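Per reviewer request, we include the raw input and output of the structure prediction for the construct analysed in the revised manuscript.
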Amino acid sequence: MGRLFRSRMDVDMAKKLFFGAIKPIKRKESVPLETANGRVLSSDIEAEHNVPHYRRAAMDGYALKADDTLGATPSSPVVLSLSDGDVEPGTCRRVHTGSAIPGGADAVVMLEDTRILGRMVEIMSQLYPGKHVGDIGEDVAAGELLLPSGHQLRPADLAVLASAGISDVEIYHKPLVAIIPTGEEVVPRGKPLEPGQVWETNSLMTACYVRQYGGFPRMDDIVTDDPKLIRQALQDNSDADMIVISGGTSVGERDHVPAAVEALGEVLVHGVAISPGKPTALGVVMGRPVLCMPGYPVAGLVALLVFGIPAVQKLGHIPFRPETIVRLPLKEKITSRQGYQTYVRVRIRDRGVEPVMSSGAGILSSVARADGYVVVPSNIEGYGAGTRVEVILF
């Protein structure tokens, strides 16, 4: 494989090629509800029991026969006697929210619509059968589909499952994502720096995003710019569902990553029309998708946002969630690189948008100072001050 980029591929075409090569994982496991939040169901869940399994009071008050309240008003109440057992005509029984409805009763009058007179109760409102009564299976009916396969579990879902007597659920395994940092100039964090060296941070950033979006990250040691060692690192991670390799993706003398991928599998894309992030390469090794992200951290972040996160989601059957977007006017113009889909870091101030930086792929602090980013299409040279733009929030 030559040193030049194969092409500057359109973003949409690069996505089509890369995501088309990804097959969602099939491995499943059973876990207790306590550890299932955010996980994805691998099978439908049907209710085995009615919830509630008895008729229950929906209010604090008195259970009675609705017919006994005919014509009841505050000025002309109906008087019923208290019962300690089943409800007979002319009687009522005290109930609390959630308690069982006694036999013979078909309605509940709210406590505030009553007045107590010793063992007698004045009823001051007319009721109809079923008023303030929860029927059997009102919440969940036995045999009902509670949640479908592919559903990502939320706290309220877990509570519903627990209410139906379910304690464990079958879910898809989290996709295992191996993260391989490369480069002669990067050293482990905490190690003293010499001129020309930087601490390795891309694997930390990548691992956080992988974990946030439902994957399980595994960070490898730094691999030097040696083709054999890079190939070996790829082979050593054959158990992973996806590999993210950082650095060595451009066309310099020490950029060996795309060639290593080609030697073991296939490079689908090398060079994408995004800025920053042009040196991104995408491939497949041993049937696993491989994202080769640029070593410059902001370019690497853009590659993660565009290709890495969606790949993790597809692998893990994780449903697409719309990004959080706000539309606000620009306080000053933003420029872009024509022919490239440009990711401009911006911050929100006084109900407007200020650009932080549109270039500078190595200025990582610009991301920390930004609230989000604006994507400028490749056929536009930028946006003028006052233009309302969509800010995708970090």
